Amino acid sequence: MDIQLNTLLVALMFITILSMGIGNILMSLADIFNHATTSRRSRSHIGWIVLLLLVHFNLFWQTKAILDVENWEFAGFLLTMAGPVLLFLATSILLTSPPEGEQGNLTSFFVGLGRRFFLFYAILQAWIIVIGITLTGSFVVTDITNAAFIVLALTLAYSANERFHNVGIILAWALGVASLFIRWLA
Questions:
Q1: Residue 107 contacts residue 165 (beta carbons within 8 Å)
Q2: Which residue has the higher pLDDT, 162 or 16?
Q3: Does 165 or 92 have the greater pLDDT score?
Q4: How far is CA 180 from CA 78, 143, 166, 174, in A?
Q5: What is the mean pLDDT of residues 146-166?
């Protein structure tokens, strides 16, 4: 396979941004699972962190689609980089830990982060649909799960109900597993 220099540079930047997000998540998970201190995140918060790690890996796997592009233009480059950047920003918001002295409800803290995180997550899901249509020229079956993620993320962004957020992470994992299953069948 003969890869052009521009394609290689785009792929390297794509991978670099994703790798920074993966590294941040792994450091946070190591801190969470380190039993020397008690975790300062709710189960819903941890569930979203682990799910975002899988989103990173899925997007990382899509790097091979970048290698199929022969001619890069600046607009295409910006569109391509928007996804990893959105994912990195969503991850940075989600990895925010409560202040040291915070002894309040951890779920309330997560719900407080929710609006910013879920808005970025919804935009990321829209980006996935747009980039998929741009690269493949059609709406694919997995885009249905991305559209469902948009609806879920926007609903969670505007909800302060802690129980709904607990149900939301279960729905998100169900959508994630469904998406993986659909990709496996395709």
A1: yes
A2: 16
A3: 92
A4: 27, 12, 22, 10
A5: 92
Count Cβ atoms below 10 Å from residue 130 Cβ, excluding itself. 15
Pair 103, 69: CB distance under 8 Å: no
pLDDT at 119: 96
pTM recorded for the entire structure: 0.88
How would you write the chain as a 3-class SS string?
CCCCHHHHHHHHHHHHHHHHHHHHHHHHHHHHHCCCCCCCCCHHHHHHHHHHHHHHHHHHHCHHHHCCCCCCCHHHHHHHHHHHHHHHHHHHHHCCCCCCCCCCCHHHHHHHHHHHHHHHHHHHHHHHHHHHHHHHCCCCCHHHHHHHHHHHHHHHHCCCCHHHHHHHHHHHHHHHHHHHHHHHHC
Residues of the chain with pLDDT > 70, as a percent, come to: 91
- Residues 6 or more apart whose Cβ sits within 8 Å of residue 183: 142
Alpha carbon separation from 167 to 74, 93, 164, 175 (Å, rounded): 41, 21, 5, 12
- Residue 120 confidence (pLDDT): 96
Q: Please provide the size of the chain in residues.
A: 186
